[in-house]
Amino acid sequence: MNALDRAKVWLGEAYDEETRNEVQNLIDNDPKLLEESFYKDLEFGTGGMRGIMGTGTNRLNKYTLGAATQGLANYLKEFHGDKELKMVIAHDVRHNSRKFMQIVADVLTANGIKVFIFDNFRPTPELSFAVRHLGCDAGIVLTASHNPPEYNGYKVYWNDGAQIVPPHDKAIIERVGAVKVEDIKFNGNPELLETLDNHVDDVFLKNCVKYGARKQKDGYKSLKIVFTPIHGTSIVSIPEALDRAGFEHVYLVEEQIKPSGDFPTVKSPNPEEPEALSMALDLAKTVEADIVIGTDPDGDRLGIAVRDLDGNLVLLNGNQTNVILTDFLLNELETKNEFQGNEFIGSTIVTSDIFLDLAKHYDIECKLGLTGFKWIGKMIREAEGKQKFVCGGEESFGFMVDDFLRDKDSVTSTLLACHIAAKAKSEGSSIYKKLIEAFIKTKCYQEDLISIVKPGISGAEEIKQMMKDWRSNPPKSFDGSPVVVLNDYKTQESKNLKTGEITPIDITASNVLIFYTEDGSKIAARPSGTEPKIKFYFSVHTELDHVDDYPATLEKLKAKIERLKAELS
């Protein structure tokens, strides 16, 4: 059916009066918005769904959420048989998140599933923790992460606290696709709904402090920390966690501590964007802070700024933050002689290859997966009883310490970053020097990315064509260096362009291309799975012998990345 025919279905009696009126208004007055709202179904992907809120099959609303939840309930009941099922739901600060959570809870309880909900918003990592802590069969968080205010979303977690992966993801997608509006049970059973007290909060924070801070608190009382939740959920967790850990000088960005789905002080509530941390940086200059931390709306990712060799505040990229945290944890195990020989770290294919180098340096394994922390969660589950997970991270400002939860965790990561900064300061060093020292152990890496936004129907087609063109006519060189290896994760093949040899890639298929040049540069192309954009990732490296050589080396690597980016502009 075309968009108009699909819209007319929503004029039927199965939909409430308000929805029918909104659809009729679109038909009568806004054909362009009608097309965008109904030209396709909002996809329930392998981790859930995310979209613009509004009326229509391609929008997030009562009926698209209802269908997703009914399909999930159908699968859980089919998978577990007669077992009494339990689920926990959390939500972020976005518009309609609380209302959407109630809709989801009603559908689940109407299907006979026991549901726990929080009394207010909570960070996503706490939802991951709560799934296992409460012994639930699954969990859901209503969030659209760092997307613009008009978005919301829905992420599904399995009983291990990690986002759903094969085979459950595809099976759930099938059940969701089979749901008709008449099948959705909207009338919840209040007797199966329980609001949690602060017990889960307390145990969650105790674990964050346990794995993020240390008993030796050298420098904790002198370290100056600036923190901003950028109007998001972590305001209820990170200040409390820092206080419990023993940090005494924590300065909050007052203009950004009020939770708001409008994110009124920023263009984008994304700690990857320098503008999102500008207020925090201004405050840091005023109070002479040592470290700045900002988190995204659902509190699973963090951006960090620290003082460089000249004492100036500089923003770290996600890879750099993760290098500091990873190297500290591995060095701590080595120093304490606690390596058992079965440890591993987790990373992703578009994240810097320095994590492979770090693993080699410490003689442990680095496992690689597709973009998204659910794949790191999958690594941990498959390694249970055989290997010890130390930490994992991805370039998009996500990191996780140990295994008490299984998703990106800005709370514990914040504590760990502050511990490293405090310890380094007490030793007359700095967290920035710790990054450079890690580069000396391996190689000096620098990364950057380009995100090209292509909204709407035409944008999706443009992105498809871009990837098609790169496959049919791949670049022969970048910055004068020949491409020697092409990894196509859609075909799951790695091709050596010098020898013609093709080797299989043992990673789940995904629409990603990665090019390696003769001089070691890495260029990746990946359409986003949650936003209307395509991302190009760049990574370059060289040898580094001394800390004092880093500024000049960094400028050379940045200049090379700019040349690489220019070739794609």
Automatic annotation (TrEMBL):
Keywords: Isomerase, Magnesium, Metal-binding, Phosphoprotein. It comes from the Bacteria. Transmembrane segments: none annotated. Its cofactor is Mg(2+). InterPro entries: A-D-PHexomutase_a/b/a-I (IPR005844), A-D-PHexomutase_a/b/a-I/II/III (IPR016055), A-D-PHexomutase_a/b/a-II (IPR005845), A-D-PHexomutase_a/b/a-III (IPR005846), A-D-PHexomutase_C_sf (IPR036900), A-D-PHexomutase_CS (IPR016066), Alpha-D-phosphohexomutase_SF (IPR005841). Residues 43-177, 220-305, 317-438 form the Alpha-D-phosphohexomutase alpha/beta/alpha domain. Pfam families: PGM_PMM_I, PGM_PMM_II, PGM_PMM_III. One of its GO terms (biological process) is purine ribonucleoside salvage. One of its GO terms (molecular function) is magnesium ion binding. Gene3D superfamilies: Alpha-D-Glucose-1,6-Bisphosphate, subunit A, domain 3, Alpha-D-phosphohexomutase, C-terminal domain. Belongs to the phosphohexose mutase family. This is Phospho-sugar mutase. It comes from Profundicola chukchiensis.
